[in-house]
Structures are given as C-alpha cells and as structure tokens.
Amino acid sequence: MQQLAQRVGLVEMPMTIEMSRKGRELEAKGHDVIALNLGEPDFDTPDFIKEAAKKAIDDNFSHYMPVAGFADLRQAICDKLKRDNGLTYTPNEIVVSTGAKQSIANAVLSLVNPGDEVIVPAPYWVSYVELVKLVEATPIVLPTTMQGGFKITPDQLREAMNAKSKVMLLSSPNNPCGAMYSREELAALAEVIATKKDFYVVYDEIYELITYGTEHVSLASFAEIKDQVITVNGLSKSFAMTGWRLGYMAAPKFIADACDKLQSQFTSGTNSIAQRAAIAAVSAPPSSVKYMVDEFANRRQLMFNLLSEIPGFKLYLPDGAFYMFVDVSDLLGKSSPTEKINTALDFSMYLLNTAFVSSVPGEAFGLNGYVRFSFAASINVLTEACSRIKTAVLNLK
Q1: What backbone torsions phi and psi does residue 111 show, to the nearest 5 degrees?
Q2: Domain annotation covers residue 1
Q3: Does residue 269 share a domain with residue 304?
Q4: CA–CA separation, 207 vs 237, rounded Å?
Q5: Which of 378, 333, 374 is nearest to 178 (CA)?
Q6: Shortest CA distance to 123 belongs to which of 159, 172, 71?
Q7: Is the pTM higher than 0.70?
Q8: 202 near 135, Cβ under 8 Å?
Q9: Could you report the per-residue pLDDT of 323-376, keeping only the tens digit for each?
Q10: Which of 231, 257, 285 is the last residue of a domain?
Q11: Which run of H or of E encompasses 208?
C-alpha cells in the first residue's frame, strides 16, 4: 500500500506549472502553443552578470559557502537596500536563499505555528496560500476588486486582525495584477500593523525594478514597523535570472537567525557561482536593466490595446510586473460549439485547447472570474496570441 505523509495532501501543484504541463502535452501532439502562463522574462541574463559567474568558476568558488550567503554578497545587498530603498540593514540581518520562494517559505516556517492565522490579500501569488496550508495555519484571504485597484484598505486589515493573526503576505508590484501600493496607502496600512507588535509582514518586492512610472516604496521604510517587516527580493525577474535561483530577505536579526537555522537543514548555502554573479547584479544601478523595462512597457501598452478590443474583456493597466489580469466574468455562461464556459478555469482551458494560448485562471490567485496573461514575450508573439484569443472569444455564444 502506497502511503504518503498527510502534509503532501495539504498543498496543490501551482496552476502556473500545471498549465505549462498541459501546454507541453499539446506541443507534443504537434500544436503551436503560445505560452503566456509563466512569469519568466524572455531576455537573457545581462553579460556583465554572466562574466562575474565565469570569473567565479575560474577563481574556484566551488566549495561550501556560509548558509546565509557570502559575507560580501550580504554586504552588497545591504548597500543595494540603502541605495535603492532607503533601508538600513547589517549583513547579519540578510539571508540569501535558493530563490525568493525559499525566502518566503523560510519566513513562514520561522514565524507561523499550526492554528495561527495568516492574512493573504487576493489576488495573491500562487504559493502564498499553499505555504500557509503546509504549516497547518489558516489563510485569511482578503479579496480586492479591480475598481479598488486590487488593493486592501486599512479597514479591511484592521477587521481581519485578531489574537491569532501572525503574518501577512503582501506583494508590490503584485503578481498577478501588477498593482502597486503608493507611499500614502502603505503609510495607512503601517498605522494598523503598528497596533499589533507580534504581527509581521512578509513584503515581496521581486518585481521592484519592473515598474511603469509609479514609485516603488518598501514597507520597511516606515520606521514604526521596520522590525515587523521581512523584505523579500531576488534576481529572477529584474535581472532575467530565473534559472540561477537566488533570492534574499532582510529581516530583524532574530528572524534572520531562525531562517539561517532552518535553511541549514534544507538546502544549506545557495549555489556559490550564482552568489558571485549576484554581487554584480545587486551592485549595478537599476539603470543597468532599463532596456528590459522599456521593452516591457512597450509590450504592456500593446497588450492592453489589443485585449481591450475583445468583447467581454475588462482590463486593468498594471503599474508594475509583466501581466495583464483580465476580468472575463462577462463571458462566463457562454458556450463554444463543444463546451460551456462556467468558470475562468474553463475559459483558460478553452483558450489552450482551441486557440493554443496558455494562461492562468484567477482561481489560482484567489479571485474568480479573472485570467492572467504574461506579456514577457516578443511583440510578434503577443500580437499573434491576442489575435487567437480574440477569434476564440468571438466564437463563444
């Protein structure tokens, strides 16, 4: 008899990965599938970062490294946080991990006990709620609306907080919708957070550099709650380094120490070559990747224009990241010649099976009736994808 631990059944595979699997199955049958489901830049890692990695190999950085990261990388991260975010940290408050996902997992594992409550504004990144379930805590999902800019209000947060509330998982820019909290909005949330000193916020800034004219503000910049904030960032999105698997957190020392301890039993230190390359990345000014952001801005406008022409689509122009989070609720209840579209998941599967365009339904992000399309693809690919999507929608009755 095959029997797994109960914790395996607590979590689900991310829908982003599931849609990739289904897309590959169609490709294996000879179909030309356009993948707009994964959040991966289509750019290559900048040359100056690759050169740093090559030098690290030649310099024989091939041995075990400190669990929390090389000291000079952690200092470089402190310098970056001071330069770009106005945050003051010391290297012993930094933990480098195998991707920002591990940084978030480390924080949740270090702070949350079974039976605690974790506040998760929706839409949320696919792994947030699953990590909460994995530690046997209760996710308290706070829904938002397109009309409200996909942002929670101070009153929502205040009403959700109670004696069991331990952590909130919050991102800005947001995945999947690209919404960003303004300085004034964060200040109002900070006032609420400060009322409960044993409450912490994991603030996910992975899309920090991919913004379109809106100022990015770090939650930890509000002095009254700095010791309640765990800032998480990484290199995957801003520096096109998804395969390098390197993320980091900045946190109060007791939390950083706990994450160091836990990580020592899971993965130990992050890949040594990736760490040396990361020094080059975080030491570079944001202008070093502006060419990517400029191209994403062009694609954002193109995608918004083309999708706005499709009947039944309601759009939100994202302030950051590289996704369109489209309200497709007006299409629910319609039918194709072979199936009825009752949910956003049905619609995503319809697009995949008939238009051969992969997307991610809003159910994966905690909001029904939406579909996420990534615009991290070339102009030609996006134009073709939007044409296929429009044709598929027009065939619904």
Answers
A1: -110, -25
A2: no
A3: no
A4: 6
A5: 374
A6: 172
A7: yes
A8: no
A9: 999 999 999 999 988 889 999 999 999 999 999 999 999 999 999 999 999 999
A10: 285
A11: none
The neighbouring-strand residues paired with 34 are 357
Greatest Cα pair distance, the chain, in angstroms, is 64
Which pLDDT score, from 0 to 100, does residue 27 have? Answer: 81
| Both tokens assigned to 9 | 């059944």
Which pair of tokens denotes residue 340? Answer: 């009825």
Q: What phi and psi, each to the nearest 5 degrees, are found at residue 46?
A: -55, 145
- Element holding 324 (H helix, E strand): strand 323-327
Residue-wise pLDDT tens digits, 113-162: 999 999 999 999 999 999 999 999 999 999 999 999 999 999 999 999 99
Return phi, psi of residue 203, to 5°: -105, 110
Using only the alpha carbons of the chain, give its radius of gyration: 21
CA dist., res. 220 & res. 172, Å (int): 13
Whether 149 and 198 share a structural domain: yes
- Joined together, the tokens standing for residue 229 give 């904030």
Is 112 in the same domain as 78?
yes
- CA distances 79 to 99, 117, 120, 133, 277, Å, are 20, 34, 30, 35, 16
Domain count, the chain: 2
Domain containing 79: what range?
47-285
What are the structure tokens assigned to 281, written together? 């990345």
- CA-based nearest residue to 108, from 163, 171, 160, 167: 167
- How far is Cα 388 from Cα 298, in angstroms, rounded to an integer? 20
Burial class (CB within 10 angstroms; exposed 0-12, middle 13-18, buried 19+) of 363 = middle
Domain of residue 94, CATH code: 3.40.640.10
Of 235, 257, 285, the residue that ends a domain is 285
Write out 210-275 in H/E/C secondary structure.
CECCCCCCCHHHCHHHHHHEEEEEECCCCCCCHHHCCEEEECCHHHHHHHHHHHHHHCCCCCHHHH
d(CA 161, CA 17): 32
DSSP 67-88: TT--HHHHHHHHHHHHHHH---
Residue 295 belongs to some domain of the structure: yes
